[in-house]
Amino acid sequence: MKNLITITDLSVEELEDLIHTAIDIIQNPDKYAESCKRKKLATLFFEPSTRTRLSFEAAMYELGGSVLGFSEAASSSTAKGESVADTARTVGCYADIIAMRHPKEGAPYVAARTAGVPVINAGDGGHNHPTQTLADILTIYREKKRLSNMTIGVCGDLKFGRTVHSLIAAMSRYNGIHFVMISPEELRTPRYVISDILDKTNTRYEETTSLEDAMPKLDILYMTRVQRERFFNEADYLRLKDTYILTPDKLKHAKETLSILHPLPRVNEIAVAVDDDPRACYFKQVLNGKFMRMALILKLLEVKVW
Predict the structure, then answer these.
(1) Which residues in the chain belong to E strands, given as ranges?
(2) What pTM was estimated for this model as a whole?
(3) Which helix (H) or strand (E) is 186 found in, with range?
């Protein structure tokens, strides 16, 4: 039985298979409409979510399955003191597959050890968010027709940004990738990400505090918000939250072929005026996330569609 806890649980070949399945789903939706009939997805969301939870639900419904679960910890037996392991083991008696979001790093891994059904990490603290990375990868592939030989700028909260950590882990496995990591000093990429991922794969990278200096060289700009919920100090959050705001003026020196991504939700780090720029891809990401989650559910449930 396979789970998805980190993006590296999937090989490059498996990622490419998911991309091909997702594209086939886009082109032939009726072919998949009953593929998960009588299958149940449990969404265990111990932390607020809009896109990820609804995307999983939409994915399962469009595969002909059903959904059960909860959207906040207060509505589960965790509020009574039940452990993550016991919750997962219980829910595994009712569902065929589980998607879990939790504020504590490693919680989905703990759940996977006891659930008895496949577990998908839908975000664990500041650690990983592999299905967002699946959305990112499909978006990059559909926009660029490749996953190699490009310069990717990641901007904003690179310290706590689990979407950034997962994207770096995924894309560093492709040839010719160059990361430009743009952040304030206080929110730099964790050293373990650099040593355990970038250095080990010999992936080129540079760190800077200037979005304007980085902009002309980028093929992809991956914006992130400064996450209030990850800060222990409100004053630090307020001081850093508006460090980078992408505006049409800042895009004047960007490539015409630039693709702008953001895992959403945004606060004010991308001006609304940018939404009309043809290079803005963040709402395409939302839709691509549903297709990749459909492909992932099929893979983990070992459902074959001919």
Answers:
(1) 40-45, 66-70, 97-102, 119-124, 150-155, 177-182, 204-208, 220-223, 259-261
(2) 0.90
(3) none
Distance CA 99, CA 18 (A): 17
3-class SS of residue 177: strand
Long-range contacts of 249-255 (CB under 8 A, 24+ apart): 250/211, 250/212, 250/215, 251/215, 251/277, 251/279, 253/212, 253/215, 253/216, 254/215, 254/216, 254/218, 254/221, 254/279, 255/216, 255/218, 255/219
Examine the pLDDT at 74 and tell me if it is beyond 60.
Answer: no
Question: Cα separation of 238 and 260, whole Å?
Answer: 25
DSSP, collapsed to helix, strand or coil, labels residue 79 as helix
Tokens of 84: 């993550």
| Total count of residues recorded for the chain | 306
The pLDDT tens digits of the residues spanning 98-123 come to 999 998 989 999 999 999 999 999 98
Residues 58 and 287: their CA atoms lie apart, in Å, by: 10
Of the candidates 157, 166, 154, the residue with the CA atom closest to the CA atom of residue 229:
157
The whole-angstrom separation of Cα 91 and Cα 103 is 19
Task: Answer positive or negative: Cα dihedral of 141, 144, 146, 149.
Answer: negative
Extract the tokens encoding 265.
Answer: 């939700």
Tally Cβ neighbours within 10 Å of residue 60: 24
For residue range 250-297, what is the model confidence (pLDDT) as tens digits? 999 999 999 999 998 888 899 999 999 999 999 999 999 999 999 999
Q: What share of the chain is helix, strand, coil (3-state, %, to 5)?
A: 45, 15, 40
CB 110 within 8 A of CB 133: no
Average predicted confidence (pLDDT) for the chain: 90
Contact 4, 301 (CB under 8 A): no
Decide: 111 and 88 in contact? Cβ < 8 Å: yes
